[in-house]
Amino acid sequence: MSTPRTVPDDRAARWWSLFLVLALLPWPLLFSEHHWWAFIVDTAAIMGVLRLVHGPHWTSYAGLKMPPVHVLLTVAAFGLVVIATAFLLPHIYASGGLRADSPALGHQLGLLFQSLNEEILFRALLIGLLLQYTGSRVLISMMLACIFAAAHFLLYRYSNPLHVPLSPIALSTLFLAGVAMNNLYLAFRHVGFSWAFHAGWNVVWLSPPMYDTLTNAPLYEPQVFNRVLGAPVMAAVAGAV
Question: pTM above 0.85?
Fold first, then answer.
C-alpha cells in the first residue's frame, strides 16, 4: 500500500518541475522568429516533464485544470483583450513614431504558445511553490512581478545582440502587468485568465514587423518594448488593470 505524498516530497517535486521547465523555456528563442513551431514543441516538452514529475495530477500543478465554464470565459476574455489592444495600439504607435506591418499568422500562433509556457512557469509553478512557504498573496504577487520584469530586463540586456536595456517606464509597465496576472492566478488558481490577458496582448503587438516612421528603419524587439511599454499611457493602463 503506497504512503501519501508528504509536504516535503511535494515541495521537492515542485522544485524539480520548476528547474526543468526553466531549462526548457528559453530554447525556442535560439531560433529565428520564422521558427514559430518551436514554441509548440516547447509546450509539448513542458507538459511531458510535468506529467513525468507530478503524475496524473500534473494539470493542477501546471495551472491547466479549470471548470468548463472557465474555458469558455478564457476564450471570451482573450477575444476582448485582442479587441482592446487593437484599439489602443494605433494611438501608442502614433505618439511613439512607429509603423506596424501586417503580422504573420505563424508568428501569432507561436506567441499563443510562448505566452502559455511563460504562464505555466511564472504563475502556476512559481506561485504554487511560494504558496508552500508563505500565505501572503500580496508578498507573492509583488515578488513575482519583480521577477517577471527582471527576466525581461536580463533577456534584452545580456542575451540579445543589441544589449538594449529596458527603460524604467517599460519595466514599470511589466511589473504592473505582472501584478495583474499574478492576481488573476491567485484568484482562480489556473492560468486561463492570466493567459488570456498575456496572449491577447502579445499576439497583437509583438507579431507584426515594426518600423520607425521617420527613418523607416526596422526595429528589434527590445526597441519596440521601450517604444510601446515605455509610453506613459501604457504604464497607466497596466496600473489600472
Answer: yes
Q: Cβ(137)–Cβ(186) under 8 Å?
A: yes
**Residue 2 included in any domain:** no
Q: Cα(138)–Cα(69) distance, rounded to whole angstroms?
A: 27
Query: Containing domain of residue 23, as a range?
Result: 7-240
Q: Which long-range contacts (CB under 8 A, 24 or more apart) does 163-167 make?
A: 164/220, 164/222, 164/223, 164/226, 166/222, 166/225, 166/226, 166/229, 166/230, 167/226, 167/230
The per-residue pLDDT for range 20-58, each reduced to its tens digit, is: 999 999 888 777 666 889 999 999 999 999 999 999 999
Overall number of domains in the chain: 1
